[in-house]
């Protein structure tokens, strides 16, 4: 009788060990499958960017005081507080996110670029006088986006090719001093949409290096009557005057961990 009880207990122990082992294997399989689907994604991009910007506000009355004639002149296409820039400089971007099935990445983006060139100011579009300042100014950018690697076959020549889009906010640092000199309106930030394409080459199992070409266009927000918006002058940008203000073209070297 004791032998039968002992044998029964032994069978139960063996069965329980087998169940635990099977459960552990299933957990490992689930983890393995998850790791094959979701990967951490990091990217560092170093490059240069060329920028061209133009800010202007459409006149409602369309009359301009011509000092040479000493009279008011009507111009249907009259603008005031004109501000433009042409130039370029270095840029840096860092991204962190997740990569799904080694093809689709979503990430947060943070970076900056420097605009080095000529900043031009005019009070009215009919003015002959123009103020020019040569300066280097910082632009902080942040946002989120996604990138697609459509070719998964490592033997393909197209392996590593990517396309992507990023929605960004851009802070225009160092601009307020110049605007204050001329008494013009000023909005200190822009919203932007960046498109990019390029290719990376494999260095190791998870690290890649490559090149990227990007294009971004930005538009500024109209000025609101609140304390959070920096305002100079008596003519704030109107809500119906939101226009495309800036175009940026960039070429960069990118290091990717995926």
Notable features of this structure?
8-stranded antiparallel β-barrel, alpha+beta, 258 residues, elongated
Give structural notes:
- The chain is an alpha+beta fold.
- It is built from 2 helices and 10 strands; from the N terminus they run H-E-E-E-E-E-E-E-H-E-E-E.
- It has helices at residues 2-35, 176-182; strands at residues 38-58, 63-66, 71-74, 79-100, 104-124, 131-148, 161-172, 189-202, 207-220, 244-257.
- An 8-stranded antiparallel beta barrel has the order 1-4-5-6-7-8-9-10. A two-stranded antiparallel sheet has the order 2-3.
- It is elongated and about 75 Å long.
- The termini are far apart.
- Mean pLDDT is 79; it is low at 5-10, 12-17, 19-24, 30-34 and 223-240.
Helix content bin:
10-25%
Span from first to last CA? 63 Å
Low-confidence runs of at least 5 consecutive residues: 5-10, 12-17, 19-24, 30-34, 223-240
Q: What is the helix tally?
A: 2
Strand order of the largest sheet: 1-4-5-6-7-8-9-10
Largest sheet: 8 strands, antiparallel, barrel
Shape: elongated
The fraction of residues assigned to DSSP E strands is over 45%
DSSP strand count: 10
Structural class: alpha+beta
**Overall pLDDT:** 79
- Give the topology string: H per helix, E per strand: HEEEEEEEHEEE
Describe the oligomeric state of these chains in a short phrase: single chain
């Amino acid at each position: 009788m004791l032998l039968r009880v002992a044998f029964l207990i032994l069978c139960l122990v063996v069965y329980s060990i087998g169940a635990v082992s099977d459960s552990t294997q299933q957990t490992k399989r689930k983890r393995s499958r998850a790791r094959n689907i979701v990967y951490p994604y990091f990217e560092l991009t170093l490059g240069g960017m060329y920028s061209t910007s133009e800010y202007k506000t459409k006149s409602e009355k369309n009359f301009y005081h011509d000092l040479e004639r000493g009279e008011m002149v009507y111009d249907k296409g009259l603008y005031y507080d004109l501000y433009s820039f042409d130039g370029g400089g270095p840029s840096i971007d860092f991204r962190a996110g997740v990569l799904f099935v080694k093809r689709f990445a979503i990430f947060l983006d943070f970076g900056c670029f420097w605009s080095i060139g000529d900043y031009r100011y005019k009070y009215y579009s009919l003015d002959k006088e123009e103020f020019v300042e040569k300066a280097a100014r910082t632009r902080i950018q942040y946002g989120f986006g996604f990138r697609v690697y459509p070719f998964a076959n490592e033997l393909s020549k197209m392996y590593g090719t990517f396309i992507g889009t990023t929605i960004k906010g851009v802070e225009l640092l160092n601009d307020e001093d110049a605007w204050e000199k001329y008494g013009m309106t000023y909005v200190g930030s822009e919203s932007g949409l960046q498109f990019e394409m390029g290719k990376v080459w494999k260095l190791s199992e998870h690290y890649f290096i490559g090149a990227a070409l990007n294009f971004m266009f930005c538009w500024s927000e109209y000025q609101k009557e609140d304390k959070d918006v920096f305002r100079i002058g008596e003519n704030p940008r109107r809500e119906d005057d939101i226009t495309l203000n800036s175009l940026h073209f960039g070429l960069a070297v990118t290091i990717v961990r995926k």
